[in-house]
Structures are given as C-alpha cells and as structure tokens.
Amino acid sequence: MNDLPEKFEEFEDARRNGFLTVKNLKDDGKNIVGMFCAYTPKEVIYAAGAYPVSLCATSEETIPDAEKHLPKNLCPLIKASYGYALTDKCPYMYFSDMVVGETTCDGKKKMYELLGEIKDTHVMQLPQTQDKDHAMKVWRSEVEFFIEKLEKKFGVKVTEDNLKEAIKLTNEERILLKEFYGLGKLTPPPVTGYEMFQVLNGANYTFDKAQQNARLRTIIDDLKRKHEDGESQVSVDAPRIIITGCPIGGVADKIIKTIEDAGAVVVANENCSGAKNLEELIDESTDPVDAIAKKYLNIPCSVMTPNNGRGELLKKMVEEYRADGVIDVILQACHTYNVETHQMKNVVTKEGKKSYMSIETGYSPSDLGQIKTRIEAFLELL
C-alpha cells in the first residue's frame, strides 16, 4: 500500500505524457478525435476505430493569444481552449484528425466557428432541454449525424456490434470510476480529494482502457484494505466537502488543495469530470444509438432548462457522502452556472440543511489569497 501515491501519479503522468501515446498511435495509423465536453459520445468514436482525447483547456498560458480574437469577458476555459488551438501549443489538438464540440453555452458554440478555421470541427446541435420528446429525437439524430461524419472522415463503417462493444468498454470504466470516487463515502476517506481528482482527470488521457481498469481495480482494492486497517492520511474529524459547478481542471490546485490544506477533505466532485458525467451508465439491453443518446442527453449541465437533475444529484450526494458543506465553483463569465447558484444554495441549505458557498474565479492565481481567506472562514463555520 505504500506505493499508492505512485499509482495516483500514474494517472497524472498519463495526462502529462499522453501526447507521446497519441503520437505513437498516429505513427501506427490510428485516428484521433479531440473533444472538450462531457456531452461528446465517446462510444461512437471508439466504434469508428478512433481514439477520443480531451483537449488542452486548463491553463492561462494561451489566453492572451485567444483574446486577440475573443472578448476578454469570456469564460477562461473557452479562451484557453481556443488559445491552445490558435498557438498550436496543445499536442492533443495537433495530433487530432478532427475535433467535436456541442452547442452547450453561447461562448463555446461561437468559439467553435473560429476553431473550424484551424481544425476540422464537427459541432453537434445539443437541445437545451431534456424533458421534451422532441429533444431526444433531435439529439438522437445528432448522434447519427456524428456517426456519418466519422464514417466519411475515416472511411469506416460503424456497426451495431461496434457500438455495443464500445458501450460495454465505457460502462466498465464508469463502474470502476464510480467505485473509486465512491470511497469518499467512507469515514475517514482513504483518499484525498486531490488524489481523487488526479485519477478522474487522468482517465481522460489513458488510451489503453484495459490497462487503466486494471490499475483502478488495484487502487480500489488497496484503498479498501487501507480503510479496513484504519490507515488514512485524512482525519476522521475533517470537514467533508462536495464540490459542484463548472469544470475544475484549470482551478483544481486553487480550490481543492486550498480546501484540504485548511484541514477539510473533498469527498466528492459533482462536476463534469465526476458524478455529473459518470453516475449514469448506458443501457446495454436496448438499441445502442438510442441508449447513447439517452445517457448523454441526461447529463445535468447548467445549459439545460430546466436543469432539475443537477439539484437532485447534488441532494443525493450530500446525503450519501454525509457532506458538511458544498462549495460551488463558478468560472468567471459562466452565466449559466452563475445563475444556478441561487437554486443550488436552496437545495443545499433549505432542503439538505447544510452549508453552501459559491466561488467565482478564473485561471489567474491573483485571487488565491482571497479564496484562501474565504474558504478558511467557511470551514470555521461548519
């Protein structure tokens, strides 16, 4: 069990060094599809014999270049995404044969128009609601259009068997990732929130899923034994925090580390890289295109109206993870998540009877001191 930190680092190394794997895949004649969002149906990409990869979007390095074309008062994730493509500093973008995006927020879908001038970009028209029959019909047709795009692009045929095999593969991954982050329900958790983030984020850059799943199984089993033996670096009295809101890849150090340096522990992430995306499996007993469309349309992102699923998921997680408080992380200029802070506060404080705080931040470290002060004050009140 002493090598557990090394196993966590393997997932972090997958993120840092994944471009070498991508290069090797390209050298072997494989196709790569870059993606930005949890709404991208990875199963379709796998079924086309290609490999999906998450693109660079978590650093302020290229934002000044992006602001030559994009407004400054735009979400840092969008600016970083475009900036990396514009400057050709993202190896994953460089090796991608094409990029897929979805019409989530207005900023992203307009950025994709500019991105299309740099790289072959396919944009899926995502309905902005989940509870209308026509929304499912539209989204299913978009999944079919995406299949046709990949078939034409790569000269392949996506079969029903290919889709079913891909669904089985990704469901196996989801089950293991759910079991892994579900360890946060234990008291004390045998894993810190930052280690949990390393694994969840690193999974997006691991291309050999069988190898990844074997590593996950080992980590989970080791952590369970560690908990049974009473071993944990987390104090049994540490305040238990759930993070919700925007994607946190670009602010993980600023938020998660600050929370845990202050003596608390992040027991769960509801964000895009966590439960929001992984909680629901794809139905393996029905038509694969229907099943894929249903699973992805059900993701409770703030771009949906209404977005009741997010509140329901968060309320469930507060109870299951026995959270003491919830911190809602909002990226600057992300209007949809910012508006939802009112609803999420009600869900957490009025229905869940727990403490809630929202933090609006960007990729710059300039507000780190202020955030540290606010988080420490919040934890003192728990």
From TrEMBL:
<dbReference type="InterPro" id="IPR010327">
    <property type="entry name" value="FldB/FldC_alpha/beta"/>
</dbReference>
<dbReference type="Pfam" id="PF06050">
    <property type="entry name" value="HGD-D"/>
</dbReference>
<protein>
    <submittedName>
        <fullName>2-hydroxyglutaryl-CoA dehydratase</fullName>
    </submittedName>
</protein>
<comment type="similarity">
    <text>Belongs to the FldB/FldC dehydratase alpha/beta subunit family.</text>
</comment>
<dbReference type="InterPro" id="IPR047678">
    <property type="entry name" value="YjiM-like"/>
</dbReference>
